[in-house]
Amino acid sequence: MSSAKPFIFVCGADDFLVNRAGKTRFGELAREVEDEFSREMLSGFASNVAEVEAAVGRFRESVQTVSMFGGRRLVWLKDVNFLADTPTGRAESTLKVVEDLQELLAKVNPAEVLVLITAAPIDRRRAFYKWCEKTADFVFTGGAGTDKNADALAGVVMAEARVLGVTFSEGALRLLLARVGPNTRLLIEETHKLATALDEGAAVIEEPLVDELTPNVAEGDFFEAAEAFFSGDLKWTLAALHRHFFGGGDARPVISSLQNRNRLLLQVRALVDAGDLRPGPRGFSKADLDRAAETYGRHFAGATEKSAYNLFTQHPFYLGKLADAKKLPGMRRLIDNQMELVNAFEEIIRRPAEQEDVLREMTVRCLGA
């Protein structure tokens, strides 16, 4: 598995994907270097120029060390972050150290030492990156901007699913991305969980399975309070708030989560009352939502990113679950909720030491009637 190139360079936008690819490659190379004392892993993580210099210094010393038993050595410089477009990465001193690193790598003899470098994120405009593309056994993994690009994240999920011998329906994939958000590690873990949960012989993960097994972690740990509040269950909501504050939570993210959902429900309520949307057992019809978007989408001109301000950026299945016809509050209740949330935010500014009390009082006013 050794490379004819002087070293191996694995990079990308997502540190989890890059580290996973590096770990796989290191395992393959380790089979060629049986002596565990001849294998070394070094951290390339640096938060300032001094740490960059120290990391490259350790790497230089390791690469130039002769094996105790005369065989080849294996050195992995992992978690390199000083090749990114950051203040540390742009510093003149860092760029000089990177030039020294390039000079060192150009002289590596793979017959004596196998070198693996993993770096994320990385500035692809830099000369060092382009030099590595031409010189190294080079791998770019995860796609550009994986941490922000939904298409790239979808590609990661589908690639993982193929490895597991399954696939996602289009709706299930969108719902998974909506539930988990831009967390590559968790997306992969959820893909494994969903694949394992499929019935024997089944190969397609559908929306209901994602809805049943994947929590809505994209909204954070305060999701339970929002779920309880909009179910109308006063006792559950108060208990969820207590758990949130007992764990040292703050009121602001809870209020933000409640406001985001309330905004969506206001829009849904208006469209349901107008007859433009009809809740069904599998959420809202995509055709209905598309027709409504054609009619009202002009009011959201330029708003293409997923947002609670624009229900047309949301997944129809998610909207339908959010706005269960049996639990969808009336317009007056939703407007009152919004005013109560604004008042609660102002109140916690006045009573910062009583945040739980403020939200409990607000909840009782909204749900206790």
Descriptive key words:
369 residues, alpha/beta, Rossmann fold, Zinc Finger, Delta Prime, domain 3, two-stranded parallel sheet, DNA binding, DNA replication, DNA_pol3_delta_N, DNA polymerase III subunit delta
Structure at a glance:
The chain has 369 residues and is of the alpha/beta class. The chain contains 16 helices and seven strands. Helix 2 (49-63) links the parallel strand 2 and strand 3 (73-80).
CATH topology annotation of the largest domain: Zinc Finger, Delta Prime, domain 3
Distance between the termini: 70 Å
Radius of gyration: 26 Å
Give the helix proportion (percent range).
40-55%
Number of domains: 3
Q: How do the SSEs run, as a string of H and E?
A: EHEHEHHEHEHEHHEHHHHHHHH
Largest sheet features: 5 strands, parallel
Shape: elongated
CATH architecture classification name of the largest domain: Up-down Bundle
Strand order of the largest sheet: 2-3-4-1-5
Low-confidence stretches: none
InterPro entries: DNA_pol3_delta_N, DNA_polIII_delta, P-loop_NTPase
Organism: Termitidicoccus mucosus
Protein name: DNA polymerase III subunit delta
GO molecular function, one term: DNA binding
Topology at a glance:
Blueprint: E1 8-12, H1 15-30, E2 39-43, H2 49-63, E3 73-80, H3 87-90, H4 92-106, E4 113-119, H5 127-135, E5 137-141, H6 150-163, E6 167-168, H7 170-180, H8 184-197, E7 204-205, H9 207-213, H10 223-231, H11 234-246, H12 251-273, H13 286-296, H14 316-322, H15 331-350, H16 355-367
Parallel strand pairs: 1-4, 1-5, 2-3, 3-4, 6-7
Helix pairs in contact: 2-4, 6-8, 7-9, 10-11, 10-12, 11-16, 12-15, 15-16
